[in-house]
Amino acid sequence: MTTSIPVVVAGASGKTGREVGKAIAHAPDMELVGAIAAHYAGSALKDLWSEPVSVILQRNLSDIDAPYAVLVDFTERHSSYQRVTEAIVRGWDIVVGTTGFSADERGSIDSLVRQYHVGAVMIANFSLGAWVMEQLAQQASRYFKKAEVLEAHTDTKKDKPSGTAARMAQILAESWEINAVDIPVHSIRLPGMVAHQAVVFGTMGQTLTMRHDVHDRTAYAQGVLAAVRKVSGFRGRVVYDLGEIIDPV
Ligand SMILES: NC(=O)c1ccc[n+]([C@@H]2O[C@H](COP(=O)([O-])OP(=O)(O)OC[C@H]3O[C@@H](n4cnc5c(N)ncnc54)[C@H](OP(=O)(O)O)[C@@H]3O)[C@@H](O)[C@H]2O)c1
Hints:
Layout: E1 5-10, H1 15-26, E2 30-36, H2 45-49, E3 57-58, E4 70-73, H3 77-89, E5 93-96, H4 103-116, E6 120-122, H5 128-140, E7 147-153, H6 163-176, E8 185-189, E9 195-203, E10 206-214, H7 221-230, E11 238-239
Parallel strand pairs: 1-2, 1-4, 2-3, 4-5, 5-6, 6-11, 7-8
Antiparallel strand pairs: 7-9, 9-10
Bound molecules: NADP nicotinamide-adenine-dinucleotide phosphate.
NADP nicotinamide-adenine-dinucleotide phosphate binds near residues 13 and 220.
């Protein structure tokens, strides 16, 4: 008999954590053992999600007494950094979707993951389309020598540019052996947007545009479920690339 993977979702009341959390609650090989939020702490998740789950939202990770769980985090950078480090010290594996960490924060999470020998997945974009676009952009960058990145998100998104756009600029910069800051990234924040990205390559007499649109946040669930299933196999290192997690069909 296989036991299910215990999971705690931080940000379960948020736009993304809600969709990802519901997918976890429905996964036959996972068990939602806890959930974390800020304003909604103390609320019953079943009322918030209209799903038959018996979990009360907590404010802090220390309020959850599970001996082990995978922490799935879609919150905001500052509280996420504290929570993620606390989870690592408890020996939990982590799957982090929250974006906007500083280089120092990423570095110290990386060191703690090695020190405590836990599994970690930190991916700026868990959607399949964004990852495929990275592979295609890498190919195009062998033939085009200039590109600009456009990203558009809903106006409540806190970080700018998006983690996905920053990663795309980094990928192109590495390919062209230049600094990522030399690749222009344009950001739009407007109500009505979800998550959209285009990379426009240009050369003599022509442009090539690649575009990816997330129409709703269920787009992230497949990648997160795969990460939860695989994270314990990555003990001692942080996985930043969705390609290590998703399998081709
Ligand atoms: N990697 C990816 O594929 C991906 C995809 C989409 C989004 N993201 C990232 O995920 C994060 C969340 O995005 P979102 O659009 O879902 O945001 P959101 O709708 O604003 O949700 C934020 C969530 O975090 C909780 N929260 C905020 N501060 C907290 C604190 N101090 N302690 C505990 N919980 C706290 C909120 O709780 P309350 O509702 O109770 O206040 C809410 O549940 C962002 O960093 C975003 O960039 C990543």
